[in-house]
Amino acid sequence: MPAFDLPLTELAHHRPLPEEPADFEEFWHGTLKEAAQEEVLVSVQPVETGLRLTECWDVTFRGFAGDPVRAWFSRPAGVPGPLPAVVEYAGYGRGRGLPHERLTWVNAGYAVLLMDNRGQGDQYGNGGATPDPHAQAPGGPGPMTRGLLHPRDYHYRRLITDAVRAVTAVRALPGVDASRTVAVGNSQGGGLALAVAGLVPDLAAALITAPLLCGIRRALDLTDAHPYGEISSYLSVHRGAEEAAYRTLSYVEGVSFARRAHAPAHFGVGLRDTVCPPSGAYAAFNRWAELSGADPRKEIHAYPYNGHEGGDAVHVRRQLDWLAGLFSESPA
């Protein structure tokens, strides 16, 4: 795939203001306040995985509207004391899979909560276990278009709420240093980690790679790859629904969350990424924390000849080193 978005020299200064609804903060404050009315943890059950060096639990917590959301909680076996926590969010169409799939952060010494994606899990990977009981509103069949015609009905209102509640859940689990909680994700997971950074002011850090839901309007003009292509396909049938759809999408725009972030941030992006065009990630990075009054450390790594895979394992090593350095400089 040839380069198709802005050149790197322009991406470095790409700072478009999102078309932000006047009630953006009120919308999310009300949504999260409603979700926080119930105790977060439902159950925490140990799981036999066959892994000798990792302990794992099957966690159920209350997310949007008190709905049960599943997650795997893992930590290094036999390591005493509270550990910094990584909350990891999975990609589009993927569920939490099996507990032995994602062990990088556990092997690095972190307690990890891997959140299931409600109403997803059937497109690739090894499945999920969290239904979405609120998916009846008008919209398309895929998560990207479920409830697209009204912000209160939209799938990502529910999923972002779940993501915020996952932070509350991991902080309630034993053996976790709640003051050092980190949001991590790639693609859809990166978009969720970014949203969490804008909605949880005391997050310790956010590690965001190739984020979905960033620079949405521009992405719809640049690419017809899914999942953005699902929106285009829906609007090609439902002619005249653009205004309603764009209004809904403005409530989940990653740049708006980025502007409200407080935490240090580490970004990664492939410059030939047609799934999540790089200009969206740069827009979020360049406007990071501009409304919060914070001045956190931030850095972004671009991979000029890579697509949605970005830096892959090379970038993960950069994430590991960056977060270890961040925590070594901060008192535990």
Number of distinct helices: 11
Order of helices and strands: HHEEEEHEHEHEHHHHEHEH
Helix content bin? 25-40%
Q: Going by CATH, what is the homologous superfamily?
A: Alpha/Beta hydrolase fold, catalytic domain
Q: Can you tell me the CATH architecture?
A: 3-Layer(aba) Sandwich
How many domains comprise the coordinates?
Answer: 1
Question: Which strand order does the major sheet show?
Answer: 1-2-3-5-4-6-7-8-9
Strand count, sense and barrel status of the largest sheet are: 9 strands, mixed
- The overall pLDDT, averaged over residues, is 96
Which CATH class? Alpha Beta
InterPro entries: AB_hydrolase_fold, AXE1_dom, CE7
Region (Disordered): 121-143
Pfam families: AXE1
GO biological process, one term: polysaccharide metabolic process
